[in-house]
Amino acid sequence: MKRLAHALIVSLVLVPLSAGLASADFPDVSATSRHYAAITDLVSQEILVGYEDGTFRPDQDVTRAEAIKIILLGMGISVDEGSSGASIFSDVSEGDWFYRIVGTAVDRGIIKGYEDGTFRPSQTVNRAEAVKITLEAAGVTASSMDGEWYLPYETYAKEKNIEPPQTDGLWHPEGAISRATISEMVYRQQVVKETGGEFDEATNWLRNNFVNIEGSLKVPFGWSYDSQGIGAVWLLDSGHGQKSPLTPYENGGILLVSSYPNTEGKSATTLLNEVKSGLNGMISDVSIGGYPGLRVSNYSGDFYKEWYVVIPNNDLLHFAAMRGEGAYFPYLESYLEKIVMSLKYVPASEMQVSVEEALEAILSAIQVDGKGQEMMNFLTDLELIETDAIGVGTGPVDYFYSPSANITIKYERSFDVILDVEDGNTSNF
Fold first, then answer.
1. Is the entire prediction scored with pTM above 0.85?
2. End-to-end CA distance of the chain
3. CB count, 10 Å around CB of 78?
4. Where are the domains of the chain?
5. What is the 3-state secondary structure (H, E, C) of 276-297?
6. Structure confidence at residue 2 (pLDDT)
7. How is residue 412 annotated by DSSP?
8. CA-closest candidate to residue 13, choices 61, 53, 55, 50
């Protein structure tokens, strides 16, 4: 994708950094992180760099001064080294590293500061402020609305997926913005500005193989999945204490994935017509991953939507979705649809990984929340040998032994995390 040219490097720290720290290979930014693509892209544009110790510190809060610098350069605005616009603020002096940066933003009408004449450069920037500054710098004219000052910006950010709501369905304008989050925000606005459309949130989702259907699906960040047996992809409503994915709470959802062998060798048309004959609801023909399929909308019963698709090996796949009806449900519906539409056929022979490859993947995921089941699925012979009901204080801990790899995996359920791995069949660690 074409990227805007930038002449300046943004340093998010107040000490000089060497050119070597403009690498995206940060030890604290995993390639499986939801913000990896955004951070990598902005680093490649020389908009972002890391700290002298080689880290990026993605979870660290961003100040208002830092935010201005990132956003200006991210939107292709060069700093006017002759600007004195920041002199209107009583708490910004010419000796400050951000003096010309803030001045440039003032000169362009991007910021105005507070009513008391201050800018508060060291104050953590919040979501509403960061989005407003980003859109103003991008030249976006947000429609005026009654209510809170940030509503036009919130509306635009949600419509274009620049900064969507949190998983409770709320936008949280007061929420502090981290280095990772502002990276994502600027990256997405760049895409929106270049394409003229909304940002497709599935763009950078990670693709995972589902052995049970001979296919792969993209899984949203923060969601869990099981790729064997009756496969499933789900989001727990943690805000309401949901533990089991099978009964979605207000802001939770699940997609069940199953396969039916076409032992009689029927054509795709015949299979789908047979499915249609036994269904109720709104049925429409649809292409799913380029394969012939059906979408069934049911607004009564257990599943609100189902999909059927015939893949190249002539098997029939069935997807069934359930979701809550809380404030997050429009996003749940969108995500569940995107997961299904991301389907790609992958023959079983191409899904096999060696024990060594599986072990490498598992070891790389130790202490990484939300990746436990995904990595453990690489070992098909795991046996549950013990469960510690008390665990580490956050829920039960399971011990799984793999005869093929001769290792035991210590797994904590609530955070879907591999706590540790030990050689042999043991729970004594």
1. no
2. 48
3. 11
4. 19-195, 206-349, 353-423
5. HHCCCCEEEEEEECCEEEEEEE
6. 37
7. E
8. 50
Contact 108, 77 (CB under 8 A): yes
Residue range 374-399, pLDDT digits in tens = 888 888 788 889 988 776 667 789 99
Main-chain dihedrals φ then ψ at residue 131, nearest 5 degrees = -65, -45
Give dist(CA 417, CA 121) in Å, integer. Answer: 38
Does residue 22 surpass a pLDDT of 50?
A: no
CA angle 391, 393, 396 (to 5 degrees): 35
| Contact in structure between 255 and 303 (CB atoms under 8 Å) | no
Q: Token pair for residue 38?
A: 């955004």
Distance CA 55, CA 48 (A): 12
206-349 CATH? 2.60.120
Residue 350 to residue 284: CA distance in whole angstroms: 32
CB 307 within 8 A of CB 288: yes
Burial class, 36, CB count within 10 angstroms (exposed 0-12 / middle 13-18 / buried 19+): buried
Name the strand (E) or helix (H) holding 42: helix 36-44
**CA 111 to chain centroid:** 29
> Six-digit token pair at 28?
């604290």
Closest listed residue to residue 19, CA positions, set 2, 38, 43, 35: 43
Tokens of 227: 């790729």
Q: Which two tokens stand for residue 174?
A: 């007061």
Residue reference for tokens 């000169």: 107
Strand partners, 408: 401, 422
Could you give the CA distance from residue 273 to residue 384 in angstroms, rounded to a whole number?
42
Contact 125, 67 (CB under 8 A): yes
